[in-house]
Write a structure and sequence with these properties.
The chain is built from 16 helices and 23 strands. It is of the alpha/beta class. Strand 9 and strand 10 form a beta hairpin. The longest helix has 22 residues.
């Protein structure tokens, strides 16, 4: 879609100086390395970087207009249009949507938020809709899927995409006759206006946990970020069993649909027949959330429940490997609530030992570390604490924080800094009937350390360890 700069800023409160307003806009970005001829460069000031530092580079690469939200920036040449706005992130979402032709208006958009379960619920909704013959895109933590097939799309690996990537993607979906968009709405995505100007038909509130408090500056700011979805969606689906979610919608002015086990919930399915490979009460709740979305869209409850027996968990969510009687589960659980739910589920089906391997990410909520350590030792026969994604934080210090939750020395607990060897150690010591849980990274294919990003997959490491275990067991038998 070709737009003149005048059309892009029409009806948007701003001050304009310099340049030619009849300039054709070919794109918009806040990343100077993506600027091409005819682009608008948004010089946003972030937490760690200031876009104003890259204005000269953006102009050199062909930017015809600069968007700023303050006056203390470098002097900009007179032939460049300078647009001053009150909020760069809001303008970015507005301009990205308009440049793409507001594609969200032509599809049904379902946005899911919650501390835990967003990925599973979005994939469940996508699978149910596909079962009815709809063309569906699922966008979130594990990537972008068209009709259940992962596609390549040039964008950051973020739960909720920035507006400059999201709206062109939505246009691509619309061009390919996709009728339904199901996306994850993270607290950071909501608070930074990434989903503004994306028309949302259904919003889903799953739960509220303690993760991300530090990133937002406290519990109140975190909850307020989540509450933005209530004002953006036409209908809100709420977990009736989560008291915090119920409180969040007390003053909502849009239609509310409640799901859960509470007798007063609108959507309750006591006899829900799930795929036997999907265990756990929390996954039944995830399915109820997905069922609720289909009900709002007008589908019959009887038909929806029938389709639930075919649901499949997404990658890295209780992803199972089994060999010679040893079951290994790889799961993304990286919050106290998620880890507790997975441990409870596995401990109920474990006839031998439950061996847990986990760590905590660096530069994230430190308050959860000891709590997760306490949960791990409570439900597990033995625990190996290891590195997760330490980022720029000392991994030894993170492990120390986790082990405070054990309340003293314990023979069933050990620390192994190298995640690869921690996984190997857990699997090699497992016997038939035992379960090994590898928690925290799930689908991720990299390990983020102070030295950078390195290839690493929990699932692949578990596969290798299981193969090695089989080889060693055969060798022992032959020797005997």
């Amino acid at each position: 879609m070709v737009l003149f700069l005048t059309e892009l800023i029409k009806d948007w409160p701003c001050t304009v100086n310099g340049g030619k307003l009849r300039t054709v806009v070919t794109g918009i970005t806040e990343d100077s390395s993506r600027v091409k001829k005819g682009y608008v460069f948004v010089a946003r000031k972030g937490h760690e970087n200031d876009g104003a530092r890259y204005i000269e580079k953006a102009i050199e690469q062909g930017a015809k207009a600069i968007v700023i939200d303050r006056t203390d920036v470098i002097e900009i040449p007179g032939d460049i249009v300078v647009i001053t706005v009150s909020d760069c992130t809001l303008f970015m979402s507005h301009a990205s949507a308009r440049l793409a032709g507001n594609p969200a208006e032509r599809m049904k958009v379902i946005a899911v938020t919650g501390t835990n379960g967003k990925t599973t619920v979005t994939h469940f909704i996508g699978q149910l809709l596909k079962g009815y013959g709809n063309r569906v895109a699922v966008i979130g933590t594990t990537g972008i899927f068209f009709d259940g097939i992962k596609i390549d799309y040039d964008c950051p690996k973020m739960t909720t995409l920035p507006a400059e990537y999201l709206h062109p993607l939505l246009k691509k979906c619309n061009d390919e006759n996709i009728t339904h968009i199901v996306l994850e709405a993270s607290s950071l995505g909501l608070s930074s206006n990434r989903l503004d100007h994306c028309e949302i038909d259904i919003g889903i509130l799953l739960n509220i946990g303690t993760d991300h408090y530090e990133e937002h500056g406290g519990k109140s700011a975190y909850i307020n970020a989540k509450k933005r979805l209530i004002r953006m969606a036409k209908t809100i689906i709420v977990n009736k069993d989560d008291e915090q979610c119920v409180q969040m919608v007390e003053k909502a002015t849009v239609p509310l649909i409640y799901f859960g086990t509470d007798p007063s919930a609108d959507v309750r399915v006591p006899e829900l027949q799930m795929n036997p490979s999907i265990p756990g009460h929390y996954n039944r709740m995830n399915a109820l959330a997905a069922i609720s979305a289909l009900l709002v869209l007008g589908y019959s409850l009887v038909d929806i429940v029938h389709h639930c027996s075919k649901l499949q968990l997404p990658e890295g969510r209780l992803q199972q490997l089994e060999r010679d009687g040893v079951r290994v589960y790889v799961d993304y659980a990286h919050t106290p609530d998620a880890l507790k739910a997975v441990l409870q589920t596995l401990s109920n089906s474990c006839y031998g030992k439950l061996i847990t391997v986990f760590g905590c990410g660096g530069q994230r909520d430190k308050g959860k570390r000891a709590e997760m350590g306490e949960l791990a030792v409570f439900y597990s026969s033995s625990v190996i604490v290891t590195s997760d994604n330490p980022r720029n934080e000392d991994p030894i210090a993170i492990i120390s924080d986790i082990m405070e939750g054990f309340g003293g020395a314990c023979s069933a607990i050990e620390a192994e800094l190298d995640r690869k060897y921690a996984i190997r150690k857990a699997i090699l010591c497992a016997a038939p009937g035992d379960i090994v849980l590898i928690a925290g990274k799930g689908h991720e294919k990299t390990q983020h350390t102070a030295d950078g990003l390195f290839p690493f997959s929990d699932y692949e490491e578990a596969e290798r360890a299981l193969f090695e275990k089989t080889f060693l067991d055969i060798k022992e038998i032959n020797i005997e």
